[in-house]
């Protein structure tokens, strides 16, 4: 057998084998991975919305809205994802707002690559032993209009203000900027969707 | 193949110190520097790498007389990539937390020089038994370094080890240790220390 024929046969064999293994392995692991993804999503939604009985899922212009409803069908809040650039890479988060988009009901960071120990405090701040989640928690009840602003080293005095993390002002501001950019846009998209339905 | 045969124990043990992949060969430095911000991450990374290394070595040494010389690297990479994907999916399915912490570094095991290096230098020339010992030894050596490096950085950078807080409130964590500079500093010191020790031993 010529060398080139042998080369082709051997590589084809290895590739086929590899494809077969990966296909069967994927069918084994994919449902579990999907389940983890859904669980994480559900957890984030329940974190940012007030107590709800169930939620509906609707996608408008590529953004998915999770509308939390009581057992009687009354809307308690709307959750959606917001993404944008942080200090180093993308920050993606789940935001919950009241049905009229006038107040934030909760914020949960889904993924971030901020500097460990500084910017990563937007997720959890180990230096604040009583309440490591203070940064995201302070967004509860914040009014996003006309826009959310950041104050440094002091307690916020207005309902549109939040306090920045010391040593991570850029990360704090990035979160606020993403929210300011997204909430208004999401409101318009959501209104469009309601119009289509009615 | 009339080379002097090394004992089987030696075949395993050489990876731990004398031919340690990280400290002596300086291979696989990318994951070594990137994921050792905590001991757990280091261990997970080393275990995943060892799995890929051992499985690929077994397969490649058993196929060594059958893969044509001209396409051996392509063949090795295909085999390695398959095992890496298997490991990556496994971690994503069974321990999503660690999989998230290691991020892109699990798929990047494909380009870890330790793995391809061992295939080219060892598994393609030796039998299955020896390749198994060699790859296990290299994997253990990698695990040792990643564990030590991860522990030092975790203790100094977060005051904990394997997620157990061991240093009290009086300790102000050295933030730099869990950042990239901490990885370079610690690895540099470790390599320096091992070189100093080996020199001392050679001269004694």
Secondary structure blueprint with pairings:
The complex is a heterodimer of chains A (198) and B (204).
Chain A lengths: L2 H46 L5 E7 L2 E7 L5 E11 L4 E8 L6 E8 L22 H4 L11 E3 L9 E3 L5 H29 L1
Parallel strand pairs in A: 6-7
Antiparallel strand pairs in A: 1-2, 2-3, 3-4, 4-5
Chain B lengths: L7 H6 L15 H6 L4 H24 L9 H23 L1 H7 L10 H11 L4 H31 L1 E2 L2 E2 L9 H4 L1 H24 L1
Antiparallel strand pairs in B: 1-2
Helix pairs in contact in B: 3-4, 3-6, 3-7, 4-5, 4-6, 6-7
Order of helices and strands of chain A: HEEEEEHEEH
Radius of gyration of chain A: 22 Å
Low-confidence stretches of chain A: none
**Greatest contact between two chains:** A-B, 24 and 26 residues
Number of strands of chain A: 7
General form of chain B = globular
Instruction: Give the overall silhouette of chain A.
Output: extended
Gap from first CA to last CA of chain B: 34 Å
How many domain units of chain A? 1
Question: Unreliable stretches of chain B, pLDDT < 50, 5 or more residues?
Answer: none
**Helix/strand structural class of chain A:** alpha+beta
Q: How many separate helices of chain B? A: 9
Q: Please, what is the oligomeric state? A: heterodimer
Rg of chain B, rounded, reads 18 Å
Structure in words:
The complex is a heterodimer of chains A (198) and B (204). The termini of chain A are far apart. Chain A is of the alpha+beta class and 198 residues long. Chain A is extended, with a radius of gyration of 22 Å. Chain A is 40% helix and 24% strand. The mean pLDDT of chain A is 89. Chain A has one domain. Chain A has helices spanning 3-48, 134-137, 169-197, and strands at residues 54-60, 63-69, 75-85, 90-97, 104-111, 149-151, 161-163. The radius of gyration of chain B is 18 Å and the shape is globular. In chain B, 67% of the residues lie in helices and 2% in strands. Chain B has a domain at 8-148. Chain B has 204 residues and is mainly alpha-helical.
